[in-house]
Structure to design on (434 residues):
């Protein structure tokens, strides 16, 4: 099967072609929704985030430049930004609703385990594995779950200053390992 | 300050992608991006490096109705952009008023007045759709939501007239309790967060004059939260959501 050409679809959006947006949506809506849902933890809110992110993609497609990076990473960053803004500004309502939060968390897959088996993820898995459990958790809790540094500190029972130092050292180690 | 050392720039770009920067640092990075191509490239590289961790999440089931909502939003946007077909959405006529409406401080200062006005207006209940009123442009049926976040049927009706007047009518019996009040919010923009339309008087009926509104769009979120008696002290919802729903354009045909 031909891999989906995200860059061409985005260039179509930049020309104002709704069919290009539809192709991109058909291909990626489920994935983008999973990314949003993991961060905001509520289906209705995640659907709103997806809606706004798709509108952002449509309006900002003109700024996408295929020479700078992959289209899939670009659209993923847009949905993550929307989801993070949602929980940082509007608040993560699910925190008040422990039952619902657990429900989502319980069937949430562990991305580190899945990375080992995915074709694109083996390298990232290898480099994350070298970080050690706690420093790996810091990166994944931030990137996948959208936790802030203080939320991570609380979750891991670690002082905030230590978390900040871990982030820095983990990023440097990851970059060296992945380059 | 955006650092100059490559390692520091990579860490900053990584923290930006992870979403770990505080709002001030994040704004600084976003501002720098327009002129700092190197930083933009470092960010794009992190986005690609980390992408497999997102991809490992798989796919979630998308509501089949979601695309229709997007299509509608695209159509509305095109209309709004084209001045010849733009609908006569209410705009705030005076810049000062608009600024005041957006200012939480001023809003807090005027809440008492608005509440007083709202109580007066509440004497006119059940006027939804009464003859001689401006036709309805949008309805929003807000669903009641219990403490566990479960929706339990229609609980509130919001009606936005063609002239921009907002009417709010309870469909369920609600008593916020002593020292508490219900506050109505709308979300124009996810990034900006909910904007208060005021504390609802006892009984919940309220009419807001059109100059208090920006353009209302299809799908726009309305919610009512439980707040202290004088309204949220911070200009954002602090209590749980009691009612929530979206605006839906009224059909144009006559009955």
């Amino acid at each position: 099967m031909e891999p989906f050409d995200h860059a061409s679809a985005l260039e179509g959006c930049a020309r104002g072609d709704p069919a290009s947006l539809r192709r991109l949506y058909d291909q990626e809506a489920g994935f983008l929704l999973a990314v949003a849902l993991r961060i905001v933890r509520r289906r209705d809110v995640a659907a709103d985030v997806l809606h706004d992110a798709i509108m952002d993609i449509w309006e900002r497609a003109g700024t996408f430049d295929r020479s700078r990076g992959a289209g899939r990473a670009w659209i993923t960053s847009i949905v993550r930004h929307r989801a993070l803004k949602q929980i940082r500004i509007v608040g993560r309502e699910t925190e008040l609703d422990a039952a619902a939060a657990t429900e989502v968390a319980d069937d949430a897959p562990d991305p580190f385990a899945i990375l080992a088996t995915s074709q694109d993820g083996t390298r990232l898995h290898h480099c994350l594995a070298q970080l050690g459990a706690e420093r790996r958790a810091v990166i994944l809790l931030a990137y996948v779950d959208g936790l802030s540094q203080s939320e991570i500190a609380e979750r891991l029972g670690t002082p905030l200053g230590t978390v900040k130092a871990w982030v820095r050292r983990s990023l440097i180690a990851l970059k060296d390992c992945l380059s | 300050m955006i650092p100059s050392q490559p390692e520091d720039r990579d860490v900053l770009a990584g923290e930006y992608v992870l979403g770990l920067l505080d709002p001030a640092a994040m704004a600084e990075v976003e501002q720098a991006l327009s002129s700092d191509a190197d930083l933009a490239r470092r960010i794009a590289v992190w986005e690609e490096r980390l992408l497999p961790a997102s991809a490992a999440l798989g796919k979630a089931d998308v509501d089949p109705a979601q695309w229709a909502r997007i299509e509608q939003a695209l159509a509305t946007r095109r209309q709004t952009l084209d001045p010849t077909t733009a609908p006569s959405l209410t705009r705030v006529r005076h810049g000062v008023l608009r600024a005041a409406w957006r200012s939480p401080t001023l809003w807090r200062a005027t809440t008492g007045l608005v509440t007083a006005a709202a109580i007066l207006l509440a004497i006119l209940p059940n006027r939804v759709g009464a003859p001689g009123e401006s036709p309805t442009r949008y309805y929003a049926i807000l669903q009641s939501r219990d403490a566990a976040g479960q929706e339990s049927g229609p609980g509130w009706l919001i009606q936005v007239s063609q002239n921009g007047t907002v009417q709010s009518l309870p469909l369920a019996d609600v008593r916020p309790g002593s020292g508490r009040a219900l506050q109505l919010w709308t979300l124009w923009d996810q990034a900006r967060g909910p904007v208060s339309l005021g504390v609802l008087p006892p009984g919940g009926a309220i009419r807001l004059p059109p100059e208090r509104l920006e353009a209302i769009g299809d799908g726009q979120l309305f919610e009512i939260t439980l707040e202290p008696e004088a309204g949220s002290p911070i200009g954002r919802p602090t209590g749980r959501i009691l009612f929530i729903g979206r605006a839906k354009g009224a059909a144009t045909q006559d009955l």
Chain A has ten helices and no strands.
